[in-house]
Design brief:
Elements lengths: L1 H39 L6 H16 L1 H20 L6 H27 L1 H31 L8 H31 L8 H31 L8 H16 L8 H22 L7 H11 L12 H5 L3 H4 L11 H18 L5 E5 L4 H17 L6 E5 L2
Parallel strand pairs: 1-2
């Protein structure tokens, strides 16, 4: 008797658990049928609304077997509970057995709607064809603009970086529109148009992004350098970090013919060329009058207070663009000075600088006599007749 009572207790417990689970399943099925009925009752006025209705019809038609198995299982569960004397509330039983009736009605409504929408589908099929043609033209225009007037054609790297962001945003918009049209073409049984020019622009922008990413990182690094106080200057660290950018640029030499690559390479070289000059400016040989002359020639002025003067002040002078400063002492530096003068002349010749100032710290002795013939030779070799001044000074 004890075992029998225990078994009945388990049956009652399991039956109650079945009731709770099945109540949720029945409620979910009725809720799903309600939602599907609401969609079918809509009158599609736009292509998006038509897509929703047609997708709903397709969902109903494809899930018939799954729903049938579900409501048959619920009916069988209800029958088992009756068999074992587990109380089924009449309203629960009615809800369970009404699922089949409602689902059959839903399938009939979906079939009828599918037939009645044929005329609407033909109309939207034509609309989709027109949209594909218009979008093809839009893609062709975008393709031409990206290649002819896009970020690859900018001489200014900042403008190119901004333009790249704009084209990337436009590309995302066009990719989204392409996906919508592909779905519509599938929905109406139209041949798919792949729009290959979008893929070409995407690949092209990805390549340019490699260049502009390096430039963006370089700008951030220069901004960090510019906040360094003059007294805390560690030129070697700046040299190493700048060299890293050159290495990164060399890794994408397959893009060396692109204008942004050429411009960034020149900008990096100009910055690297200015670093030895910046290092020389820390020489104790420079006096306040030399800084005053430098500020006068560059048109920039700043406070030389060591607690305020930063590299940003020096960067603003744009030494690598139009002014070069060299200071060398007389003893043992004649040929070193000449070689760097040669480098400055060559760089100036390439950039067509409008102003070149060379300050050579060697006094007015034999240093001048030995350097003068070489400097005149540079005039002849590079045909630079617009050199403003070579000033010699001593400590």
């Amino acid at each position: 008797m004890a075992a029998h009572s225990e078994a009945l207790g388990w049956i009652a417990a399991i039956g109650q658990a079945m009731v709770e689970i099945d109540q949720n399943r029945v409620a979910n099925l009725h809720a799903k049928i309600d939602v599907l009925f609401q969609v079918l009752l809509q009158k599609p006025e736009t292509l998006d609304e038509l897509k929703v209705v047609l997708n709903t019809v397709a969902e109903i038609q494809s899930s018939g077997l799954e729903i049938e198995l579900e409501y048959q299982n619920l009916e069988e569960q209800s029958r088992i509970r009756d068999l074992y004397g587990i109380i089924n509330r009449p309203e629960d039983v009615a809800q369970t057995y009404s699922i089949q009736t409602r689902w059959v009605q839903l399938e009939l409504e979906a079939r009828s709607l599918s037939i009645s929408l044929q005329q609407t589908m033909r109309k939207f099929t034509e609309i989709t064809k027109s949209q594909v043609i218009e979008f093809s033209k839009e893609v062709a225009t975008f393709y031409d603009q990206a290649l002819q007037k896009g970020p690859a054609k900018c001489n200014d790297l900042d403008a190119g970086e901004k333009l790249l962001e704009e084209y990337q945003m436009e590309l995302v918009r066009m990719q989204s529109k392409r996906e919508q049209l592909v779905l519509a073409q599938r929905l109406f049984g139209l041949p798919l148009v792949p729009f290959p020019m979008i893929v070409e622009v995407e690949n092209f922008l990805k390549k340019l992004s490699q260049i502009y990413t390096i430039y963006s990182d370089f700008k951030s690094a220069v901004d960090k350098f510019s906040k360094t106080l003059w007294v805390d200057l560690d030129i070697q660290r700046i040299v190493v970090e700048t060299e890293d950018f050159s290495i990164r640029l060399k890794k994408i030499r397959n893009l060396k013919t692109e204008k942004p690559y050429i411009n960034l390479e020149a900008k990096l070289k100009g910055f690297q060329d200015s670093l030895p000059l910046i290092q020389d400016l820390k020489s104790q040989a420079l006096r306040p009058r030399h800084w005053e002359k430098l500020m006068k020639e560059t048109g920039k002025s700043f406070d030389m207070d060591p607690n305020l003067f930063t590299l940003e002040n020096l960067f603003q002078m744009e030494l690598h663009n139009f002014t070069s400063v060299i200071r060398y002492k007389e003893s043992g530096c004649i040929w070193r000075a000449f070689l760097l003068v040669l480098m400055i002349f060559a760089t100036s010749f390439q950039r067509r600088q409008s102003s070149l100032i060379i300050l050579i710290n060697c006094g007015r002795g034999s240093c001048q006599k030995q350097l003068k013939p070489q400097i005149l030779l540079m005039h002849a070799l590079f045909q630079i007749n617009w050199l403003h001044s070579i000033a010699y000074f001593s400590n």
